[in-house]
Amino acid sequence: MSATIEDIAVKANVSVSTVSRVLNNVAGKYRISRDTQKLVLKTAKELKYQPNQLARGLRLKKTHTIGLIVPDISNPFFACITDTIQSAAHRVGYSIVVCNTDDKLELEVEHTQLLVSKGVDGLIVLPVGQGSDHFRRLRKENIPFVLVDRYFEDLDAHSVLIDNFKGSYEAVEHLISRGHVRIGLIEGLPGASTTRGRRAGYLAALASHGIPLDESLLRGQSFRKETGYTETKALLRTDNPPTAIFATNDLITLGALEAIYEKGLNIPEDVSLVAFDEIDFNPFLRCPLTTVIQPREEMGEMAVKILVESMAQKEQKVFRQIVLPPRLGEGRSVRFLEHAQSLSLTAT
């Protein structure tokens, strides 16, 4: 059984209130001598005293706990951000409670309510992106939260995002510059801001080079590996298959790789592939991929910083939206087609 402040008081021969005031750093306010403070702290250390964080949290109305809600903890992108958030929060004295929604809105709502009922001091949410009513309730109750990766245009909230349009535009333009005009797009969850931004970048890149849109090249309904596998197989079975595929997250990319190799095709000789998100083991692939690299660690660090600042305020009036730029990392997964030079000369 751990030592109590009563045990410290008995051994140090002081009052319980004196021990409490020393341990709560208010000894000066009550004019407790430095010698007594040193004695109490020395005794607490000898008895290996550990404060009751639950009782302290109830007294201060703080738990020093942050709730973290992620859509898919198995996704390396979200796993990396989770790890960064946990480390950043620990450095400033907060613990993390992680909930996984499996990209289901109903689970996100349930986990949000659960964490609030547990008394977390604030929330960091990587939302599913298909509903925001529960976040409006948080705002109404003045519960601090920060959205990461996905957001809602009509919701006032702190957010840390990636410029999905820019990343997608540059990826597709990279393919076009190498002669590809039939570019398959495998996208994620409908309605999510990441899906909208990446599709918009794809469409804008085609339009800026005068390439007409072929709706049959737009595939996908989720950010799962299974989506990448089934949609890549479907694209490659068509009479006029794409010469390149743009996979809009790392799990979709894994599925696309499996489908391509299962069909006996090679990258980039038979089909080119560009991925949004950098797969951690990309350097060890037999053909390292060209990828849109997101600053995952910076996203996690920034989310914790903004939340801690937000939790220190009594009322939220100004909301910060941080949009971080991705960058294109060139691998060897894009073939240079012979007509690329003539295409670039006629592009608008």
Short description:
The protein is α/β, with parallel strands linked by helices and 348 residues long. The chain contains 13 helices and 12 strands.
Question: What is the name of the CATH class of the largest domain?
Answer: Alpha Beta
Give the full name of the CATH homologous superfamily of the largest domain.
Response regulator
Total number of helices? 13
* Low-confidence runs of at least 5 consecutive residues: 341-348
Write up this protein.
The protein has 348 residues and is of the alpha/beta class. It has three domains: 5-51, 434 Repressor (Amino-terminal Domain) (Orthogonal Bundle), CATH 1.10.260; 60-162 and 296-325, 3-Layer(aba) Sandwich (Rossmann fold), CATH 3.40.50.2300; 164-294 and 329-346, Response regulator (Rossmann fold), CATH 3.40.50. It contains 13 helices and twelve strands. The protein has helices spanning 5-12, 16-23, 34-46, 53-60, 76-91, 105-117, 133-140, 164-177, 193-208, 225-237, 250-262, 296-311, 340-346; strands at residues 65-70, 95-100, 122-125, 145-148, 158-162, 183-186, 218-219, 244-247, 272-276, 290-293, 321-324, 327-329. The strands form two sheets. A six-stranded parallel β-sheet has the order 2-1-3-4-5-11, with helices on both faces. Helix 5 (76-91) links the parallel strand 1 (65-70) and strand 2 (95-100). It is elongated, with a radius of gyration of 26 Å. The relative contact order is 0.12.
